[in-house]
Amino acid sequence: MMRAKPILILAGLMAGLLSCGKSQPENSGFRIEPSYLSLSMGQIYQLQLKADPAGGMLLAWSSSAPEVVSVDPGGLVKALAAEGSANISVVDINSSRSASCQVNVKTIWAERIDAGGASVKMALGETWQLNPVISPPDVSDKSVSYSSSKESVATVSESGLITAEGTGDAVITLRSGDGRCFATVDVHVDKERIGVSGIDFSFKTEVAKDDVQTATVSYSPAEANQLGFTLDCSDWSVAFLEPVDQTSFRIRALKVGDCEITLTSVNNPQVSRTRSFTVHEGEPAVKFSYSQTNYPMLYHEYNYKMHLHLVAGESITALSASVSNLNSRGLSCASSDESVATVSYNPKTSRFTVTGIGTGETKISVRSVSNPEARDELNVKVWPAPDTYLIWDENGYLNGSGKVNSDKPLKIIYGQPRTLRVSFYQHPASSRPAGKVTIPSELASVLSAETSHFSGNGSQVLIVLTAKSGTETVSGDLTISSITSLGRTPFSFKLPVTISAR
Question: In this predicted model, what pLDDT tens digit does every residue of 146-172 receive, in sequence order?
């Protein structure tokens, strides 16, 4: 019994020390983290107690200066004063273990608010986000409050978003959280400018690869006149976006995948709309393709559909077809009107041959043999044969049938130029044929000719015939030929003329 007394005395001494609030070493298994803390007035912080063992504890938290730093039964501390310090202690009543944390309080007051500008001009319905900066950077209270001098003109939210409610002027006041400084922003709302408060766009959200569509953009309010937008895509490798005008933009599906398309108002950058866009592999497809170099008269219209022009009796082989999402590459082709044009396919060369039969319009189609639903069409226009043309002068058509009547020669008077226009019907407008006039030897000494394109239509040639001075009546046949850059066979016709003094 005598040997146990020193142990009891020592245990009592340790309990007394613990009850004085002195913390155990960190390896004692009972400590507060962190052991040192710096706060500013108004700040709160949750202290963490690390105990091993942790079961069966009855904790009591206390502050040596509760007017400076308070602590609740769960170890949540709050700085109540601007300056000072306190010792936060915790005791496990059951085990007499204790720990403490030193808390210092120091408050850095705000000295200046930069509102980002002294004034702003807004349109009715427009919003504007304030992003103030408080100095110094380490100010204790970084909060800012906002108020408006005239909410019928402009309101401001708790986050600093200004909304133009009506025309006129208002002052927005920004005040630091500690109340030490403030700034103002003058707001002018113009009745002539109606801003954008909302923006949206409509389009097909799921399309097949290679699809092209035009999205429609809408603004609110409907009477907004400050239009315009910027485009962004989360993955430009999936979709390519290009503006068309202020109310639409084009979307091209480039590859299989998902992305997000974001539309932002230029007038009000705080207003935006984001929508998801999905590109899938798509249905089996067959599409005509062609060589623009080999055959310039095959071209795209605005709706991205191809159109082909050719002459009766002419054949072209510039067409081929692309196949996607099909295991079999077998193709078949047909013409909707074989009296106008026929079409055939050579699988060895992968080329189509289109032959003009008679004047008019038709459609040629290509489809997959294994999947007839995969098909494409091409509009074809066949022009008249090369010996058909119209010729007229300032007095109207010469021989309205389109062919020159040799019994009625063209009369030319000495010293009076004669202007003709010739339309070669086998040439579409964009082929721009040239004309050539051959004068026979019996007229070469008295007649000259100049040719040029007629500015109003590329398929017409302007011819000016001028007879030099003379009195003798002479006659002969002029040869008028077409010249084209398309490699087609030129053709010509005879035009009888008579030159006289009257």
Answer: 999 999 999 999 999 999 898 899 999
